[in-house]
Amino acid sequence: MARDERGVTAQSEDFSSWYNELVAKAQLAERGPVKGTMVIRPYGYRIWELLQAELDQRIKDTGHENAYFPLLIPESYLKREAEHVEGFSPELAVVTHAGGKELEEPLIVRPTSETVIGEMMAKWISSHRDLPLLLNQWANVVRWELRPRLFLRTTEFLWQEGHTAHLDEADAMRETLQMLDVYAEVARDIAGLPVVPGEKTPGERFAGAVRTFSIEGMMRDGKALQAGTSHYLGTNFASAFGIQYLNQGGRQELCHTTSWGMSTRMIGGVIMTHGDDKGLILPPKIAPYQVVIVPIGRGDAADAVRGAVDGLAGQLKAAGIRAHVDDRLHVSPGFKFNEWEMRGVPLRLEIGPRDLASGTGLLARRLGDGGKTAIGLDGAPQTLAAELAAFQSLLFQRAADFRESRTADVNSWPEFAAAVETGWARALHCGQPACEDAIKAETAATPRCVPFDAPAESGPCVRCDMPSAYGKRVLFGRAY
Amino acid sequence: MARDERGVTAQSEDFSSWYNELVAKAQLAERGPVKGTMVIRPYGYRIWELLQAELDQRIKDTGHENAYFPLLIPESYLKREAEHVEGFSPELAVVTHAGGKELEEPLIVRPTSETVIGEMMAKWISSHRDLPLLLNQWANVVRWELRPRLFLRTTEFLWQEGHTAHLDEADAMRETLQMLDVYAEVARDIAGLPVVPGEKTPGERFAGAVRTFSIEGMMRDGKALQAGTSHYLGTNFASAFGIQYLNQGGRQELCHTTSWGMSTRMIGGVIMTHGDDKGLILPPKIAPYQVVIVPIGRGDAADAVRGAVDGLAGQLKAAGIRAHVDDRLHVSPGFKFNEWEMRGVPLRLEIGPRDLASGTGLLARRLGDGGKTAIGLDGAPQTLAAELAAFQSLLFQRAADFRESRTADVNSWPEFAAAVETGWARALHCGQPACEDAIKAETAATPRCVPFDAPAESGPCVRCDMPSAYGKRVLFGRAY
Question: Fold for domain B289-387?
């Protein structure tokens, strides 16, 4: 890669080009050979692994067990839940031939697994003692995309999908909200995204759900990204698949089920929430490399520096810090600085012969004014651990401040239209689908969610003056 | 589940029924709705997760990075390597429709990913500095199976597939053998399988490989299971996909590539290597529960026992032991003992009011004579950790002894035919495909591998008297 190829279009100039170029140049992902598919490169996949580990631990800590269900689903299964098949039909990939023959019944490459998991739950559940049944799977799913975008909308993506069955609505709703909470915690504490949790309006519900909840993050172009959803499915899938139990009184009852998912889309959210003109900025908790050490110096001095740098990297790794030594000989230190800045590494430590003599290294942070600070190498593991923790907090705060600065309470249509040009609008809305559609047609904004934490409020709809629904303001924005 | 439904057919009576019943009753896996597919239940999936973690760490420690490549591969890609497409054609699942339309080019659901990864490697590699390129992915693959068997041969299975590109044959062969070594280590030290590593004969090679290596385990019915393979692909895929680099002299060279995989089949190997008439026996290192604690006692005593047992379970977990308290009230202790024996839990600890009073618990081991030993609860974490380590060694040794007792050096055809009735035969062989075919037709035995550790030897072929090939004895057996 020649030096002048490294730069990416400035974020402030063309957000979309910035994103596409950055995903490629930071070596996060590339387009696969089939339209809409994605190759996740090691640097991007490592972010996913780190995010996965955090989410998986919380899924287990809340009592769920991982399992695995088949990729290929009989077409007839999808048709059993009417809204579900209607919602997913346009996006399905269909296997018609296998083992050298045409199949009697076409098979669907799973777009989500409510149906096949519902079929199995029906076999496994017979008594109230079998409930709740708390399952999760890490898997790939396929939804045909006409306008693909790496990480954000790809024909195949990776995710986890939780599927649970419960005695009644109360228990299923408790689960639905608990898992939204888990998503909000991972988004905030791990990915540094100050997401807004809330309920989707009826028009934005998952196909087959009774209630859908989401966490919404604001990207640096002011648009929203839905970063995780949790659904209360009522008895819709239970009645379609016969998921029922004998209650304590000896009567058959339908289970109430839930499903919830978070996907590789989250990586797109991290890129677009934190990145700047220079490129990526990664939250330390999911950065493949938290600290990159660049040894400086040529000739005889190089060997001594190299030895010291390797020793330091070993100490950092032993202290649980993901450190990487960039010891490439065929590129200059300046090239390395630019490259790791573009790839979003939180901290960089430069060490040359003179630093070594004074027992220090020059620390550069990916956030802030770009100034460098000398730090003592003796206490480097402690110093850098503290720097990483501060970096993580600062990144979250920066995103939270940005979101607040781009969100407005609006009470008139002109205010609404202006707000969604650059960010989000909190507005009273009538809740009518036709009015939602009109808003979308005129401004491209959609209701993102009805935030949990909005205060009770009512009044005329911002668009049509009819009485407001939901008892509080709705969050509107353009969305990915 | 009624008490009399729990038993499984004795292994010694009907191995195949024993296996099928056990996989279901131990809640490891079930058949999925589509023929040949598998649902991996939480107990089975946890074994996979534990195995995965061990293997993944070793894959990373040897310098590989995880990535993810698309599930759907253009049909034309598979055709680029002639032997590869010939080998896989009968097993392919084909997507012909997607997004509501017929596709211009059919897509293959990956049976393995040499082709699509080869295509991407060609883009990423340009200079000798880009080599070696060491990639791995954890993924699902689909190969249509006419005679499916849970874990052993399923239409979809989970695996990791490593794909690497190198400067030359020497480096690629070093990698191929290194990864076979990693597989052998995981099989032996983690899964307790005393596998035999060696090279496959030409007729048993992977479609498109120059050399194929495998680890072979012996099941308790004397049959072999190939538990992992590693392939040196030469420049076959490099020339089909244009994977080349500029060498230091400025000339374009083809890369030498490798691939290697280990799958959920391994779980079938664990079941069939260690299980007995009573059911599963799990190696502690991959047992979802290493110790099950069964509280004994009713009424007032139950509360005190329950409190003590929970405290102990907490101590064991803190010491890194996977402990589970079976506190079900609607089944008897005897039912629990039988169930956890059937499900293969290495250690069971029974604690009742009298044990509590004496500060002890009654330890039962899944291997051995079934006698119980009182152990002090104070030192339980240390005692049980030592018991688990001993159990792991004993299980390996038991399998190794079994394998040796069922393997014979044979020098005549009658000896050969007798040996492969109950186990393996080490025999000199001419290496001719027609002779391999004749052996298979007559005895159902195939060459499993040419073991690395066999001493140099030559002489007449055990079947046809022609001069032997390979310079050593070949390992023959019937195989899954």
Answer: Rossmann fold (3.40.50)
